[in-house]
Amino acid sequence: MKALRIYAGPAARRHIERNGLQPSDVRVIPAAAGGPKGLILGPLDRFIFGEWLPQSTQPIDLIGASIGAWRMATACLDNPVEALHRLEHDYIHQEYEVPPGRKRPTPEHVSQRFGENLRTFYGGRVQEVLSHPRYRLHVVTSRGRHMLGREHKILTPLGYAGAFLSNALSRKSMGGWLERVVFSARGAALPFNDQDYRTRHVPLTEDNFNHALQASCSIPFVLQAVHDIPGGPRGAYWDGGITDYHLHLDYRERAETGIVLYPHFQKAVVPGWLDKALKRRHGSTPFLDNMVVLAPDPEWVSTLPNGKLPDRTDFGRYGSSVEARTTTWQRATGASAQLAEDFAFWLQGSHAIDAASL
Predict the structure, then answer these.
(1) How many domains does the chain fold into?
(2) pLDDT at 353
(3) Which of 30, 126, 131, 207 is the most buried (most CB within 10 A)?
(4) Residue 137 predicted with pLDDT over 70
(5) Is the dihedral of CA 42, 43, 44, 46 positive or negative?
């Protein structure tokens, strides 16, 4: 394989050695936060949802945070290949106005423009997502508590400082500042055990779909919080990646007889956004025993434009040159077709081709 690397937890490795990997094995698909990095997974998504999974019939839980929630919601639309192509196009071509004297657009402007884009993208099609015959969507958000209960120009930075310090001591203690709120379609149960972190579970409906999806993508200080989502507890909601950056969740019970298939942009499954600098939390745990991670080879990544995946630093790198940024991202997403080709090749002999340990 030229670009893709396969990593598997111990239970998943045993399964692959005995049976290979079949579309009917998949029980859960997580999708990480990570902004533009998620663009690299477009061809994999289109192959998985457009060609591979339609060969099976079992129900599958799709759980996402931030861009991952947008990807998984889009996979639930009729004709997912066309819809995922549109998501890639719209994300690459997003553009925001920078006021004179500022280096970046205001959170108010970004939130307004992004909300308009989501309403246009899913306009008249929310029921396609919520009533998919096989896929059960779960959208992860982070709800502020106490000092973070309402967005405020002074209290919010102080609250996030408190969350940072609490998280450095223990991940669970950050729950005093921010709780995980998961919005789930069709009355679906959570596809993971939620005892690891303070969690609430709310039905995902037509009334709160756009609110929940925008909240899941609302990076603090880049976008505004979404307040008082219908059906959920009152308060300020932010990016689901804050509490669950890469959805390092306890999937063992849900996937006891199957596989958690994870198209990801790296090998490490980092628990929360504030854990990015805490390397001790980047390793695998028993939570991931049934997981298969599909991730780009770092050496292949080095061949992409700028030697890296697309990311949010590109907005600053290219400034007002939107054309240069979009061209760079299109080159990267075009190259990532190799990831889907490699996965299709691996599936042909997955029972005989070993996967590296997760």
Answers:
(1) 1
(2) 63
(3) 30
(4) yes
(5) positive
pTM beyond 0.70, yes or no: yes
The mean per-residue pLDDT over the stretch 76-102 comes to 93
- State the Cα–Cα distance between residues 187 and 291, nearest whole angstrom: 24
Q: Output the domain CATH number for residue 330.
A: 3.40.1090
> Which domain does 98 fall in, by range?
4-357
End-to-end CA distance of the chain: 18
Using DSSP's 3-state secondary structure scheme, residue 292 falls into strand
> How do strand 236-239 and strand 135-144 relate by DSSP bridges?
antiparallel
- pLDDT bracket for residue 263 (50, 70, 90): very high
User: What pLDDT digit, counting tens, does each position of 299-314 carry?
Assistant: 999 999 999 999 999 9
Bridge pairing between strands 291-296 and 226-227: unpaired
What is the rounded distance in angstroms from the CA atom of residue 280 to the CA atom of residue 282?
A: 6
CA–CA gap between residue 297 and residue 172 (Å, rounded): 32
Q: Are 41 and 329 in contact (CB under 8 A)?
A: no
Q: How many residues does the chain have?
A: 358
- If we measure between CA atoms, which residue out of 119, 129, 27 comes closest to residue 69? 129
Spatial distance between the Cα atoms of 344 and 5, rounded to a whole number of angstroms: 12
Mean pLDDT of 54-73: 97
The single-letter code of the amino acid at 168 is: A
107 touches 221 (CB < 8 A):
yes
